[in-house]
Fold these 2 entries.
Entry 1:
Amino acid sequence: MRRVALLRSLSHRSFRLLFLGQAISNLGDWLNYLAIISIIVYRWHMGANALAAFSIVMFLPMILLGPVAGVWVDRWPRKATMIVCDLVRAGLVLGLVWAANIYIMLVLVVLASAVSTFFDPAKQALIRGTVPEEDLLSANSLSQTMFQVAKILGPALGGIIVLLGGAYAAFVCDSVSFLVSALFLSFLPRLVLPVATDTAEEKEAPAKGNFWLEFRAGFAYILQRRLLLAAVLSASVALFIIGTFDSMSALALQALGFDSSLFGFAVGSIGLGTVLGGLIVGQWGKRFSPLRLMALGDIGVGVMIGLIGLGIIIQLHIWPPFWTVLWLLGGLAVAGMIIPYGYLLQKETPPEMMGRVSGMANGIQTAFQFLAPLLGAVIADLFGVGNVFAVAGVALLLVGACIWLMRVSSSVAEPEQAAPGVLGE
């Protein structure tokens, strides 16, 4: 275990349980997503408006509830919060089996998304508490790698389940996945947060019991930590830029002369690249500055997107394997963007504030992602799809260059101040 840095976090029993629960739940989420799309399009024969409404109800709770949910997460026991969230989501997803129309379906989806706004910050806090600081990069790499594996395998598995048992069978499987996740979480020992010093307690005392003061404390913490602020802002801007073109990927492939059969192959190539990138970052990432890795990730994705945009603009029709290699390398770069960010978020945040900081950061990024497609659509209408990708590529290159030139050190002076919570094992 010591020699394979990537797997070091799995040496901790509590993280193994959390990781296994996440792996099953992630697969279930993709089954659920595919089933909803299948029912809306093929069973109810509804179009773009229904799909847009589905996207909105998925994102809106994260934007509106995400920043404030973290306050409650920091007040509540993390293990109990995650178990209750899993059980509630299991019931809501199972309810989709009896959703008679789009309106009932959207209500259940928005409720499940609202519950997830509490689950995700609690999960971040629990990861922070299940492994020591030196293994946080490994833990984040494995978590992101598993998410990408689920993204590749989930739709394929979902297609088989929908084919054999119908779309509603996928809802049952997703509901079961939440129950299995809750079962794994139930075996976790209780998380004990580190005791703050007298000075810290005096500083936090006015915020205790006052919701909005606690909320402001989380926001202020991000603003006061330069490295954390740099990571959150750079990740948010990068996700905004990616959001401008992400929904136009099929149009870009069409403009490059590829038919629809290659769309899934392109998505799979990027996903595979992200999986490989996650393994690489988890094994050797600690040799480099996390912020520099984020910069290289932005630059790598910027190059990929810029070349796609250039290919569309000049009508470049070249050997398809070239694009396959480019998508694979782009996936590697994506791993460089997202894994060091998650590591920095946890490393720079004390366990007792992890819910607020994580929830605030997630809310900001989701808002950026939600607004980005509108800008991308405007640019595409005015100047064409190729220019959307070209402009986004240049913008990501600039963001990466700015991050690379930053001189920001860790805000945490002593390792003990950011030590993870203790889990009795």
Entry 2:
Amino acid sequence: MKLKHLTTALAAAGAAFILYIGLSYLIAPQSIAPGFGVSGWPEQDGTAFLIKGLRDTASGLVVLALLLNGQRRALGWALAALAVVPTGDMLIVLNDGGHPGIAYGVHGLTALTVAATAALLLRERPQHAPARLAATRRDPARLGG
């Protein structure tokens, strides 16, 4: 399997997964919130989980937008930045006294997967680069355009 196919599959699966999680928190936070790993339900109506739902949905849409528009390098950088989110979630769960298995197994593993996908995307070479380089060697005036 080519690296490009692998990174496309990882990014698409990640986007689908986080969109599902985000929409689940927006539609039925009561049913999915216990899986987050914190020890109790937030005060009042659980607005914090609605915020998480919106955050996760937006993250998935950003990944899809970049992937569908072929912005693979930008996608790599976006995923590198987005890896902070599950890392933060892991630290929140651990700081709250939540279950370490959920903290490390869900949020920590997600952070590692997102960071690894980002690293793989950033290692990709653009397909058109060799042809453009060859053209600029023949005609240096083409370097700017």
